[in-house]
Amino acid sequence: MKPTSSNGAACRPIQPPYLFAAVPDHLVGDVHYAAREASYGWGMVPVTAQIGQTEFTTSLFRRGDTDVLQMKVPVQRAEGLGLGDRIAVTMQISGVSRR
User: What is the pLDDT of residues 64-91, one digit of tens each?
Assistant: First the structure.
């Protein structure tokens, strides 16, 4: 499932217990630019993200043609997230914030 608009990304499972949100296609280039020096290897990029009232640290990484943001179970529970939900995420990569 790929997002159909900039209003949010669809949640999808890749490997339990995480859900992953795909970065919308029109933001992938911006994310790659911001993350170019932040990666700690294998394309993994540390981020601080916020969904609803929940702020958390996680990793952003390349999956196929896009980047995905991992959402751990505590974040899913705190925000009542489930498979297929559309979400709005604010994330910060190495001091650069993009919504």
Answer: 888 999 998 999 999 999 888 999 999 9
Question: How far is it, in rounded angstroms, from Cα 43 to Cα 14?
Answer: 17
25's CB contacts (< 8 A; 6+ apart) are 2, 3, 66
Q: Determine how many CB atoms are found less than 10 A away from the CB of residue 75.
A: 20
How far apart are alpha carbons 9 and 99 in whole angstroms? 12
DSSP characters over 48-75? EEEETTEEEEEEEEEETTEEEEEE-HHH
Residues 24 and 33: their CA atoms lie apart, in Å, by 15
Please list the residues that pair with 71 across neighbouring strands. 19
User: What's this model's pTM, rounded to 2 decimal places?
Assistant: 0.72
How far apart CA 69 and CA 29 sit, in angstroms, is 15
